Structure formats: structure tokens, C-alpha cells
User: What shape does this take?
Amino acid sequence: MKRQKLLVFISTLLVVLLLAGCTKSANPREGAGASPSASDSGAQSSQPAESAGAKTITIAYSQGAGQTMDPHEAGDLTSASYAFALYDQLVTSGTEEKDGKTIGRTDKIEPSLAEKWTVSDDLKTYTFTLRDGVKFQSGNPVNADSVLYSFERVQTKGEGGSLYKLANIQSVNKIDDRTVEFKLNAPNHLFLKYLATFTFSIVDPSVAKGQPDDYLTRHSAGSGPFSLEKWDPASEAVFVANKNYWKGAPKVDKVIVKYVKEASNRELMLEKGDVDVALDIPPKDVESLKQKDNVVIQSDSTNRIVYLGMNAKFKPFDQLKVRQAINYAIDQQKLIQSVMYGQASPMTSSISSKSPAHTSEGNPYKFDLEKAKSLLKEAGYENGFTFDLVVNSSTQDYEDIAVLLKADLEKIGVTLNIKKVAPAQYRELVNNKQAAAFLGKYTSLVNDPSYHYGFLLDSKGASNYTGYSNKQVDELLAKANVEPDEAKRTELYKEVQKIVTADAPWAYLYESNLIAGFSKDVKGYIFYPDEIIRFVSLYK
Assistant: This one.
């Protein structure tokens, strides 16, 4: 679940495909600019730099229109990409050169609107110095007042407010126009990483203040590399380059996002040159697309986990040995080959193998039908049982997984009924913990166990959809959250992983790749493990 809240979802953490792609809306949202008063993949392109085609990048998304343009409310990957296009943050994720290409590093924090900062000896006070001369697209300065306004605003939002609490911010204070002080209730080793997320984007108060509460849902008020020209939630969004961007103007004049639900249509548009980038390429099509002369496919290993959630409040999942039996009955390698066509890796713990402190130690599960049958017998289910597996109808790999799981579980006498439901019903059932079993996926926007567990498996986690609760796990997580020593934190998180694996609230499935297709002329794509595409680096 990709934060099926992203942020809380960052949960988020459940990513839901809501809207059909090429449908024309009757109410396109025109002129949604910065304010009422303001206006490498592939080969080098042979097009002249001054031609219109060379200055526009068109991207085909599968994920609908996103939920909002408001960075403080964003809770899905599409909305997150909008936020990074329209807004800046105090600090940002860095990059590194690896094997001849640039890759994103969400664990590497670099200055952005803040040019420098200091941290107190007790690790509870951060003092940021803002860059001099940076302006919003309205022409107003990015100053301490705008930082205070943004952090006051984010507290009131559902998505952003959750991360604000997780950051454990006690107060935000203005020292002078260029200096802002953050006080934390306790040390938080993730604080800078949290600040680099789109949730903590800095908003122009001269634009947003006094407007209706949902104004930024469809308007922009940032200092970022693009402004919003128009947004039709059913078909497309258009972003125009900020020629006065303080980091330097983007290399393209415009980015057009098109919503194309069907993968085959996205691929056809890419092959014909109607779009420059196609996201969410199905794994089954990777090899055939690689044979196309005008297409480049990039498949990158992410920290997205895919799992089967089991709620212990429902029989028979209240029995530990039943949940463990399900883990033994799943053939991960078959899933990776038959569903993901090799574009995935095994999931061996409750956090991604890309996450700091990951360990598979203490994980006994392997494909063993006889062991699964033995555990069911010990749990009193020698003759098996029947259960419903809730599956999001808009996610094709969910259905493919369910079909294979159904076949495997039949071998141990368990009948799995695939309950395919619409996205809205899926969210309602899963978010309200009304599903005994469900398929979900999650990408941690901040690649750290504290963030991951804080949403997913802490007993109070906003994305803890199985209702998992273990007092020892909660205590270990609380201790790790305030432990300044990285080595000690690692040991605490390893202990958490062992306990969670033994408790088996999930059956581990796989870690999936992010697969994107590009015209051979597109350059500048940078993959980030949070799976959010940054428009600003793209050109052709």
C-alpha cells in the first residue's frame, strides 16, 4: 500500500486508482496559477532547442488526477509529484552518481530554502537560516513569516497534521526575517528527513491567506519550478515553467500530465510519440517494450512492500498458528515470476530490504505445504476453513496475486474467496479495519523503520489496517524513536522485526520495482526510492 495514505499515508500508504484516463471532463479547472495577481534516460535529442516540442514533456499517469494540488493535504503519489513541482521545502533529498547515472537519495538531506542550520546539544532545537532573495511566484519573499504560516497551516490538515505529530514538533518560532527555530518535544533522528517531504512545503501566505480552506486544492502558491496552468481531474494537468525559479529555470517550458488508465493505451501512446513518459508499465510488458527502438524502459528496485494483511479480530486469524500457516503456504518465487515477471524481489521482513536496520533473521517462513498443514491441525483447522480476501478492483496485480494464492491455499484445504471491490469500498473496508484479510502495498516516503512502523505496525499507527497490537513492539519503537545512537537504534529495530515476523499479522509477498517507459529522446530522469517523479529534471 503506498501510503495508501502516502503520508499517512504517505500511507501511505494505500494508493488507489480512481479515475479513468482519457475521459474529457465538463468542468476543466482553467487558470489555476500561482495567485490571482501573479502569473538520464535515452539518447540526446536531435530536435532544435528552440522548437516547441523540445520544450514540452508529456507524461502518462495511471493513477487518476490525484486528490489535490495542496501539498499539506496530499496523500497519493500523483498529488505528491504535483507538490514537488509547485513548491519548495526548507531542505531536500539529495542525489548521487552510481553506475553512470544520477539516482535520488531520500536519506541524504541537502539545503534548499534553508541555506544552513544548527542543532542544539540536546538535539531538540533546530535553527534554520533562510536564503536571502528567494521569492514566491507572486513576487513576495520567502521569509520566516511564510515558514511559520506554512507550519501552522499543515497542523490543521488531515494528511499533513499526522506527519506534524510524528515529527514531534513542540513549537516553531521566528527569530528574525531569515531565521526560524524549531523546538521538538524529544530528539528525533528523522526530523530533517521529514522536513524534506512534500508535506512540509512552504506556502505563500499572501496568496493562501483569506482564501477558502480548499483554495490550494486547485491553485498553486509556491516558489517551485512550475506553476499550475490548468487542471482537469478527469483528463490532464498542465504545469508551466517558472522562468525566475531561484534554482534556475527548468529546461522545458511546460509539463503536461495525462491520465490514461489502461496500460496498453499508455504504452501505445509512448510508442507513437504521443507522450514522452509512461508510468506504471506492467511487468509482463517489460521485455517486449525493450525491443522497441524508440523506447527506453527503466525498472528500479524500490522500498514498496506488497503483503497479505490478516486481522486477528476475525476468526480464524485470531489463531497465531493459522496466520503462520498462511505464510508457509505462499510460494513467493511463483508470485515474483508469474505476477511480476521477475521485476520484484522477495519480502523477508516487515520492512523493505532497502530500509536501514533490515534483517531477515528470525524469519522461518519458506514455501512448505506440509508445515502449513501441520500448523492448521494444531490450531484446530485440520479440515481447513473459508475466508474472503478483499482486493482492490483497480489494481491488476492484486487480482493476479489473489488467483495464485487461491490455488496455493487450496492445497492445504483452505478456500479463499476473492472479494473484488471498487476503490472507494476497498478504502472503506480496509481503513476501518472491517476486512478480515486484504491485499495491500506500502511505500515509505521516509526510508526509515521509525516512519514505516509508526504508520503501519505501531498499535496507534494511522495505516495499521490489521489492527496489530503488541505492547513490547510499541515500547521498542518508542525507545528507538528517541535513541540518538544509530547502532543502538538498529538493534532495537531488528528486535521489532523478529517479534512482528513471529506474530505474523502479514503474510510476506514481495518488494516490487518501479517501472517507467521513456521516449529515447528524454533525458534527466532521476529515480527516487519514494517513487515520486520530479518533473524539474526532465528535458529532451
